[in-house]
Design goal:
The structure holds two protein chains of two kinds. Chain A is mainly alpha-helical. Chain A contains five helices and no strands. Chain A has one domain (27-116). Chain B has 23 helices and seven strands. Chain B has helices spanning 3-25, 31-36, 43-54, 57-70, 76-91, 93-98, 104-112, 115-148, 152-203, 302-315, 320-326, 332-350, 353-363, 367-370, 376-384, 387-424, 432-453, 462-486, 492-515, 522-528, 531-548, 557-565, 568-575; strands at residues 221-224, 229-233, 237-245, 248-257, 260-264, 269-272, 280-283. Chain B starts with a helix and ends with a helix. At the A-B interface, helix 1, helix 2, helix 3, helix 4 and helix 5 of A face helix 5, helix 10, helix 12, helix 13 and helix 22 of B.
Chain lengths: 118, 576
């Protein structure tokens, strides 16, 4: 590292950003704001990805919980019911919730990047 | 039970609630403060507040009571209460916050641009809210009656007065502090005694047969039968009777009852010898021939279990006091994260009631006979530990129970009062001062109606009454929210028809069950657990009527859906 680097101030510059829009090539954000048909398509794509994530987690929940009453009805004794229902399900529920939130936030993040054309 | 510690504990909770509420009063100034704390509540405080509000008497007392009465199948209740939040998170949390609405009727109007649907949603909010407030007040009455021998209605009146005072004085902002405080109070009030109870259980040789059928008395125990009931004996039973059995009076005489049904008249004392099996009992109510929905384990078929699962999983999202809390999050992402924290907090709490239920079956089995199974949590510390320590722990539990009644009841009171003020009471005040005064009037109404309704005795157990509220919510608001958020073809006539068919059907079934109009048999099962038919009915009606009225899709649907689903950062940029 050069000795004098600490004391010197450097002005960083760059070329001015082009804010002028190229005609006929609207930005997605504007499409959404102005509620054009293309804008609605963008919103629909976000809704679809969010709904897919939600339904995936919901399916896991149904598969995890749905068969339990049948299992308990078939099982001998009621200790298994007590242990599973009393203490076994809360941690998986929280983990599912955390996984879903991560996915949903990523979906939104990806969508923002797409829309802002970065 | 020794009330020397209990009364101060209950009084302390009430005073502390009022104090924390007053702290909020100093900073709530505008109408917006009143309803949604001006939307500045962070996820952590909000999550504790939501959990504090949600963990009601049904959770604190009712779950253990049901486990005592009917065994571990009843643990579907707390699992459903928690899983309902997961479903809420998946489909509703963020869009609901982004909708910008204050209440469920606000959401209905914002999404469907229809005053009619708004009013109908308001009616259901009030219906579900009152249905849910009723068991809170009854539970409070039971608690105080068991602990101090006070008249049954006194506890209900105390809770009603404290709730009206805190809510009307400070509104939602103060309630947010109160609720957060009460979550931690409730957790402590169950956790600390549970640790001591587990130690006592260990000391007792850790008996491991809590779910042996039937339960047995661990020592000689005298039971006072408060309400006339029918015993069903599988084998002859030798008991000491002081009172009337099968119409014959006995005075402290030991009699052997043959197998079969026996009627024990109210006021009778039965003394069971050590090791005797606890007989199955069914309360006899004047005017009604039916048992409560929770009569006996063998009466709860798989149908009922699945009905319960459906109602709790889908009903949580429509509970008025739950939904109103989501508007206090600053944005959609915070609403999601708040929900995850709520899941963790409620899940942690629900690890405790099963312990009380199992210990209750071992140490207080006679509660199944007296119709006061909900009191198991309150009586266990005295029974298992005894002495001053047991009394102190009992007082802690009693304080926690009152916190449970207060927090849930105030949340419900706010939600119901909000709807009453905005949509039902005549005369809209333009001045903030008048709006606040009307909100206070709404609060009084919101609490007074269930208080009056709670006076007649002979109600179903706390958790079962709550189950009916969930069923109504799952069949009316769940279709409205899910289809409103995810389906662009929903129309106002469809929404109204669906809520009426599903929610109205469940409400009628709940009313018929509670009034005891249904005889025993399949019809009773269908009506006592309506969710399995009323939820699909609500969804189907809503979708079919919407498809049949395609011309009525509101004009702004696409814009509203965009607002519900777009991240806030895009919305603000697009607006600027």
């Amino acid at each position: 590292m050069p000795q004098d680097a600490t004391g010197r101030r450097v002005v960083v510059t760059g070329p001015p950003r082009r804010t002028r829009r190229v005609p006929g090539q609207a930005r997605p954000r504007t499409e959404i704001a102005e509620q054009t048909a293309l804008g609605h398509t963008y919103v629909r794509s976000l809704m679809r990805s969010q709904l897919r994530t939600a339904l995936t987690v919901f399916a896991v929940l149904v598969l995890m919980v749905g068969p339990l009453p049948l299992v308990f009805a078939a099982a001998e004794g009621r200790r298994i019911t007590f242990v599973v229902l009393g203490f076994g399900l809360y941690a998986p529920l929280v983990l599912l919730a955390r996984w879903y939130v991560r996915r949903a936030e990523r979906n939104e993040h990806d969508f923002v990047r797409l829309v802002e054309d970065r | 039970m020794n009330s020397a510690y209990t009364v101060p504990a209950v009084a302390l909770v009430a005073v502390a609630t009022a104090f924390v509420g007053a702290f909020g009063l100093r900073i709530s100034r505008t109408t917006s403060d009143f309803y949604v704390a001006s939307r500045t509540v962070g996820p952590r405080l909000n999550a504790a507040a939501i959990s504090g509000e949600y963990l009601s008497a049904a959770s604190f007392l009712g779950v253990a009571g049901l486990v005592l009465l009917q065994g571990p199948d009843m643990l579907w209740y707390p699992v459903g209460y928690t899983a309902g939040y997961l479903v809420l998170l998946l489909f509703v949390a963020a869009p609901l916050r982004r909708s910008g609405a204050y209440t469920l009727p606000d959401f209905a109007e914002a999404r469907l641009a229809s005053r009619g649907v708004r009013r109908l949603a308001g009616v259901f909010v009030v219906g579900v809210g009152w249905l849910y407030l009723l068991p809170q007040l009854q539970g409070a009455g039971l608690t105080l009656a068991v602990l101090t021998g006070a008249p049954d209605a006194l506890g209900a009146v105390i809770v009603a007065v404290v709730v009206v005072a805190t809510v009307a004085a400070g509104g939602m902002r103060s309630i947010t502090f109160v609720q957060a405080f009460q979550y931690w109070l409730k957790l402590t009030a169950l956790l600390v005694p549970a640790l001591f109870l587990l130690l006592a259980w260990q000391h007792d040789g850790a008996p491991r047969h809590p779910f042996a059928e039937p339960a047995a008395f661990r020592d000689q125990r005298t039971v006072r039968v408060d309400d006339t009931l029918d015993l069903r004996l599988d084998a002859p039973l030798t008991v000491t009777v002081d009172g009337t059995v099968d119409g014959r009076a006995h005075h402290d005489r030991t009699v052997t009852l043959p197998a079969g049904p026996h009627r024990v008249t109210a006021g009778t004392r039965l003394t069971f010898p050590e090791g005797a099996q606890v007989p199955e009992a069914e309360p006899v109510r004047p005017g009604t021939a039916t048992a409560s929905p929770a009569a006996g384990a063998e009466q709860r078929p798989l149908y009922a279990t699945y009905g319960l699962i459906l109602a709790t999983f889908l009903g949580t999202m429509g509970l008025p006091h739950v939904v109103v809390r989501f508007y206090t999050s600053p944005h959609g992402v915070a609403a999601r994260r708040t929900t995850v924290a709520v899941l963790a907090l409620t899940g942690a709490f629900y690890l405790l009631p099963p312990l009380y239920g199992a210990l209750g079956r071992l140490y207080t089995p006679e509660l199944a006979l007296t119709g006061k199974a909900d009191a198991a949590v309150l009586l266990l510390p005295e029974r298992m530990i005894g002495g001053a320590g047991g009394d102190l722990l009992g007082a802690l539990v009693a304080g926690g129970a009152f916190a449970a009644f207060l927090s849930t009841a105030s949340g419900l009171a706010i939600a119901v009062a909000g709807v009453l003020t905005q949509d039902m009471l005549p005369g809209r005040g333009a001045l903030p001062a008048r709006a606040v005064r009307r909100f206070r009037l709404g609060t009084v109404l919101a609490v007074a109606v269930p208080l009056v309704a709670s006076v007649p005795a002979g109600s179903p157990p706390v958790a079962d009454a709550v189950g009916l509220a969930f069923a109504v919510s799952a069949s009316s608001f769940c279709p409205l929210l899910l289809l409103g958020i995810w389906w662009r073809r929903l129309t106002p006539p469809g929404a109204a028809a669906g809520m009426l068919a599903g929610g109205g059907g469940a409400l009628l079934a709940a009313g018929a069950t509670m009034a005891g109009l249904t005889g025993p048999g399949p019809l009773h099962t269908l009506l006592a657990w309506p969710a399995l038919w009323s939820v699909p009915l609500g969804f189907l009606t809503m979708m079919l009527v919407s498809l049949a009225t395609p011309g009525r899709v509101p004009d702004g649907t696409a814009a509203v859906l965009a607002r519900l689903h777009l991240p806030e950062q895009l919305r603000t940029q697009a607006a600027s």
